[in-house]
Write a structure and sequence with these properties.
Organism: Euphydryas editha
InterPro entries: AD, Lsm12-like, LSM12_ABD, LSM12_LSM
Protein name: AD domain-containing protein
Oligomer: single chain
Largest sheet: 5 strands, antiparallel
Strand order of the largest sheet: 4-3-2-1-5
Radius of gyration: 26 Å
Number of helices: 3
Order of helices and strands: EEEEEHHEEEEH
Shape: elongated
Pfam families: AD, LSM12_LSM
C-alpha cells in the first residue's frame, strides 16, 4: 500500500486550506481522492477536547489556497484493523439498551416517573420498573410520586444514599427549570 495519496499529499502531512467561504482548515492528511479532489483532514477538536479530533472533508475544487505546512517523509504505520466483533457487540448492546428503555417507559404512564427513570438510566444501567416503582441496583426502590421521601432501601447503604441524593438533585433541577420557564413567560 502506497502512503503517497497523490503527487501533492502524503498521509500524515500537515496541510492548510482556505475555502471559498474564507474559512481556514488546517490538519493532518488522512486520505485524498484525486478523482473527486476530496481531501480528508484530521483537525484539532472544535470542542477543545485534546482526546478527540474533527475530521473535515475538503473539496479542493472549492478552495482558494492550499499549502503544505509539513511534509511527512517517513512511512506512517498502517492503520489498525477494525475489531468487527467488538463493534458488533457495541451495536447489539446499544440496541438492547434502547429496547429496554422503550419497554420500561411503556410500563409507567406517569410523566414524572418516566422523566426520573430516564435521568437515572442515563447514568446507571441497572434500573428497571417493578409495577409503578423504579428499582435501582436491585436494592433501592422509588415509589410514586417519585420524591426523595419515596426512596426506599437500606438507609446506611451507599446505593440508597446515592439514589436519594440523585432524586433530590433531579427534583431541584426540575423546580429550577420550571421557575426559569415561568419567569420567562410573565
Amino acid at each position: 500500500m502506497s502512503t503517497v495519496v497523490s503527487d501533492c499529499f502524503t498521509i500524515g502531512s500537515i496541510v492548510a486550506t482556505r475555502t471559498c467561504y474564507n474559512e481556514d482548515i488546517e490538519g493532518e492528511v488522512l486520505a485524498f481522492d484525486p478523482q473527486t479532489k476530496m481531501l480528508i483532514l484530521k483537525c484539532p477538536s472544535s470542542s477543545g477536547n485534546p482526546k478527540r479530533h474533527d475530521v473535515n472533508i475538503v473539496n479542493l475544487s472549492l478552495v482558494s489556497d492550499v499549502q503544505i505546512k509539513k511534509e511527512v517523509t517517513t512511512v506512517p504505520e498502517p492503520p489498525r484493523s477494525i475489531n468487527l466483533h467488538r463493534l458488533n457487540t457495541r451495536v447489539r448492546n446499544a440496541i438492547e439498551n434502547k429496547k429496554r428503555l422503550v419497554s420500561a417507559l411503556s410500563a409507567c404512564l406517569d410523566p414524572e416517573g418516566q422523566r426520573l427513570f430516564l435521568a437515572i438510566a442515563r447514568v446507571i444501567d441497572d434500573v428497571s420498573w417493578t409495577g409503578q416503582s423504579i428499582r435501582v441496583y436491585n436494592e433501592v426502590t422509588i415509589t410514586p410520586p417519585y420524591k426523595v421521601e419515596n426512596v426506599i432501601g437500606e438507609q446506611e447503604s451507599k446505593p440508597y444514599n446515592y439514589i436519594r441524593k440523585f432524586v433530590e438533585r433531579h427534583w431541584k433541577e426540575h423546580r429550577d427549570h420550571a421557575a426559569a420557564n415561568s419567569s420567562r413567560h410573565q
